[in-house]
Amino acid sequence: MKPFADLARFINPVNVVVVGASPRPASQGGRLYANLVRHSRLPGQVYAVNPAYNEIDGAPCWPSIRELPDAPIDVALVIVNAGRVLDALRQCVERKIPYAIVMSSGFSEAGEAGQELERAIARLCQDTGLHVYGPNCPGFVNVRDRIGMTFSPAFQHDLNGGGIGLATQGGGLGRNLLQGLSHGEGVGLWFSAGNEVDLEIPDFIAWMAQDPAIKVIGLLMEGIKDGRRLTAALDLARQRGKPVVVLKVGHSEAGARAAQSHTASIAGSAAVNSAVFRQFGAIEVEDLDQLLAVTRLLAVAAPRPGSGLCIYTFSGGTAALATDIAGTAGLPMAVFTEQTNTRLRSLLPAFANIANPVDTTADILRDPEAANTCLRVVCDDPNVGAVLFPIPMDYGEVTDGIARSIIEVSQSTATPIIPVWMSRRMGGGFELLERHGLQPFLSISGAIGALSRVWPREGSAPLAAPAVPGHSVGAAADGTAAPRQFSEAQAKAVLRRAGFPLPRNEVAGTARQAAEIAARIGFPVVMKVASPDIAHKTECGGVRLNIDSAAAAAQAYDSILAAVAQAAPAARIEGVLVEAMLPAGGREILIGVHRDAAYGQVLTFGLGGILVETLRDTTHRMIPLAPADAQAMVREIRNVAILDGVRGQPPADLDALTALILQVSEFASRHAGRLVELELNPVWVGAPEQGAIALDALIIASGELEQNAIEPEQTA
Amino acid sequence: MKPFADLARFINPVNVVVVGASPRPASQGGRLYANLVRHSRLPGQVYAVNPAYNEIDGAPCWPSIRELPDAPIDVALVIVNAGRVLDALRQCVERKIPYAIVMSSGFSEAGEAGQELERAIARLCQDTGLHVYGPNCPGFVNVRDRIGMTFSPAFQHDLNGGGIGLATQGGGLGRNLLQGLSHGEGVGLWFSAGNEVDLEIPDFIAWMAQDPAIKVIGLLMEGIKDGRRLTAALDLARQRGKPVVVLKVGHSEAGARAAQSHTASIAGSAAVNSAVFRQFGAIEVEDLDQLLAVTRLLAVAAPRPGSGLCIYTFSGGTAALATDIAGTAGLPMAVFTEQTNTRLRSLLPAFANIANPVDTTADILRDPEAANTCLRVVCDDPNVGAVLFPIPMDYGEVTDGIARSIIEVSQSTATPIIPVWMSRRMGGGFELLERHGLQPFLSISGAIGALSRVWPREGSAPLAAPAVPGHSVGAAADGTAAPRQFSEAQAKAVLRRAGFPLPRNEVAGTARQAAEIAARIGFPVVMKVASPDIAHKTECGGVRLNIDSAAAAAQAYDSILAAVAQAAPAARIEGVLVEAMLPAGGREILIGVHRDAAYGQVLTFGLGGILVETLRDTTHRMIPLAPADAQAMVREIRNVAILDGVRGQPPADLDALTALILQVSEFASRHAGRLVELELNPVWVGAPEQGAIALDALIIASGELEQNAIEPEQTA
């Protein structure tokens, strides 16, 4: 894996050069130059390069980088036609300029010629160690130090620095976030590296994870180029205690992957992305306003662990509605201490509701001092982790007063007060809250949605760092052979040698053999066609259950071959697998492995059997898994009650189940170079001590998978 | 059922009297009087009544209603101490004043004495025909005719009338909606009747359904007093083509009802409410901003049926994000005509995305004329039902120009343009859109959420009016006997006589009988303990499956009795039911009936068998059902794919299944007086032509349920 870039001189450059600087104020080169010279606080020089000018605004302008005076330059800002970019970058290498930001467009977003140019930049970076940010991007903004290496005319307006770090792939939406964080805690660094030919989102995450002035990292991603680098960066952020909030575009893409196994077709890449974010502790959101709100809550208004929410308002209907929405979201409500109850009772009229939710009634609004005291009382309660204060309407001076009260009390309490401005009339109270960085939510459900993403849950202490992924990535295997599907019998033989728990079985080549094998195994047995060409055996009449005599076994042999000959005449038939049948009442689950293009090997766990694609109740992890991952997966599925036992059933053998999940992870990891897909479905899971046994197995691999085979490991 | 009130003179009164009028401007009586005299456009007189004054503001004040001059008075507005309300109302009756609004508090919300007062008002209404609105309410506002029978000081500020009708139970949140509808289409009538002692939400719905100036009805409800009146009113609205949007508080209430059957415990009242709203065509929302947005979309910006959504913006990242969110919500995207494509291609730069989503790129913003033309082109496309226009940031004059463009084009097209103001900077563009009644959404997901609730779906033409519910309501039965649970054998006997499809069965009293019956029925059989005291037979060892010989049947008889004797020693045992066992592969579903306190008999349909409480995949309808209801229910469950057939299975016999649902509805309806709960679970549903057969049945009823029994019907 390519190491993360050292961005120290990139973030805080001394001298920079603008290649394509222009005296025309409306041009991109002119705006970029003006942002640096006029609106930034750069400690050193801004050199201008443009063969068309001798000077710009009275400062000298050089014809090329090559001809610049001899000074150490940290970053070259390149905003020339795509065709001239490579030459400029070569001059950067000559002049030992370590970083270049290429803002020009006309690269991989613009057809084949542009793609070739971009590949040439990539090669230059690899060969020389030059770091390129871009191309096709708005630049980089170090808001906290006021350094705008960007052509955006909005740079000078969005200068509210702070502890929030942003990395976005598109530029436009990042501006939305900056505008949303104009007051209170602002944005410290904003990366937006466009096509990401060299420096990528993981580099920025890793840098911000180690930057002491960054508290929270917000990400807006459209695609994921290298899942292993991304997860390594997320892991670094988690180790440093920096929360990461991510909005990933691409949830609705049709998971149109053609695949033999359920595992690969269920695990659409959106589901895998979400699972990986969860695995590495990143908080996923669905819209831009949520990204803003959750990031901001984590930076300045995170609820206290071990506490509950207090809902506080002056309208009974609003209190009921907010409590209902919080309850549906599963947020814990605070139980007040007796002291709080006593003090509220003395402050509020008899008909006010002093239990949580607190409905002060509108009376208290006439007495600002009492209103402040009352709000402070709930903030002081040790059981209150955050106060949600919905304001249902704009009442002019009355709601201005409420805003002032929230601002005042906020300044003297550690408990976050989270206002909700519910009216569309954005009155003075809204403006006051906004200006003081209290950033009211605009709907109760928006506030609850954000709070429920950040509320510290019991037992949600940062997970132990997982086993560090070190295995092969994605599509490429070790190249020995084309992938082929094993027959069930072959797959089970491989798995049996690898020590997996499987039912007793043998392949019969004749009806008579089937009868003999069945008698040897003991009745009842199940019989299944053995063919590498048939993935779904039930559909083509290739399965018989509950066979309870030798005669029935012989008969089943013939009838299976007849049915399959009709349904799949071209399939190669290796015989019929005769197998011990497990007692009814076992839970049927699925464990599968497939290769994800971004993250490499991914393990899927979920409900299995015939309903697997209907219920689609599955969860995912990158391989290899730590024991804690396997235990967490088992509890993540929606219908976990099925494993706990319903209607008097005993629970499932969860020890055996998690052991099997880990065994699959270990097996897949060991065969990472050759294994393309593995699916155990159904796995029969009995009651405690009865074990977890794979009843069916599918393997697709290139080459053989022998136990303990030493395979070449791929370096990503 | 109490008929709906005629509200003509209430909505548009000529003369009114204020009982409790006051010259003190800050008092409730003073504000109410001022709202009527100064801020309303009442065609007649406002009489003041208060024994403490002889005149108010130069107008005469009378000591009591009794002593008023002789003129027809339409509405009495009562704002005196709770203890004096009843006397005032009696005087209304004497003076033949048909309506009174009681705003005073101190009634059922304030303890036992207040509840007694409220009951006395209810009796007075019943005895005399007086209609009372309130008590404990802010009054009624006829915005469109500017009549404010309310003490709210905000009345004079929220006077933007229009075609939206509102009925809210609490007062505060209604004001939020009025403030949100200050521009563009406003609120015509706003009912907020507090404790609803007499006039109730259903009266207001029914009135607005027939009011030609009301286009859409918005409801905010905390509780439901009489479900049958509510559904009758909703039905009236549907017949008149008036969409109803409802926010019902109370989703998170723990469904703590103790019940023998799964049906009653699954059907928490929030689920039943939601199902009933769906049954009667009302659109349910989850928050106040959604109530506002959906109501407004239906009033002025409903998408054209048979069309798709166009996403139109000038930022590529925004286009991708919006398209992703729309795709996840399942909104159909419009496919442009060739003409649209051609025109867009000629208007936009080569690198713009002209397919839907349209990303014009920012270039076009410099040319307002071209921007207007381009927006008009997509609005003119016949395949476009609505245009979603997200604006990711505030760019001062640039975004002001976008707002003007949206306003201009909106005025000349029938296609709704729906702006999303995504920035928290509420700049000039936001103000412009707001002032012109275009009401931008504040997040993409908010806009998509609202649009997906109103988008006309295929085949979602207004449902045929369902069979009009006319049976008993809720708790009360016919009072003949205490409810008792039938044993499975008794229940099946009743159902068999009523013509339900059941497997062959008989009750055995000895092991020998069991063997004989099993042989008569044919193997395999299933055997189950017969006891009226055991609801969940499996849990106490009372069930044996797959019995394939007479000897095994005799043995099973003994072993069942032994197991049950241990697990439930006090249970009365009637014997063991021996029953034909149906072939494997049938789908297991549940059909149940229980009594809901608000809506009376409710039918539940869903996935059955052992997983019923785990999957909780059910849907509900009020009884009686129309055939279209049964067909719709079958398609409403999440895992409908199980009925359609998974992995090569044939589909389930849906004809038999819907017939069975209707048969249960009819049976429950016929026995409404006595039937408390009925549950068929599992029902075995075979492949087409194989039928739907109830394998287990639970009945709780007061008294006997004989076929064709004539029972007294309760009139609600």
TrEMBL record, chains A, B:
Domain ATP-grasp: 492-528
Keyword field: ATP-binding, Nucleotide-binding
Superkingdom to which the source organism belongs: Bacteria
One example GO MF annotation: metal ion binding
InterPro entries according to UniProt: ATP-grasp (IPR011761), ATP_grasp_subdomain_1 (IPR013815), CoA-bd (IPR003781), NAD(P)-bd_dom_sf (IPR036291), Succ_CoA_lig_flav_dom (IPR032875), Succinyl-CoA_synth-like (IPR016102)
Entries under Pfam families matching the protein: ATP-grasp_5, CoA_binding_2, Succ_CoA_lig
Family: In the N-terminal section; belongs to the acetate CoA ligase alpha subunit family.
PANTHER family linked to this entry: BLL6376 PROTEIN, COA BINDING DOMAIN CONTAINING PROTEIN
Protein name: Acyl-CoA synthetase
Organism of derivation: Bordetella genomosp. 2
Organism ancestry: Bacteria, Pseudomonadati, Pseudomonadota, Betaproteobacteria, Burkholderiales
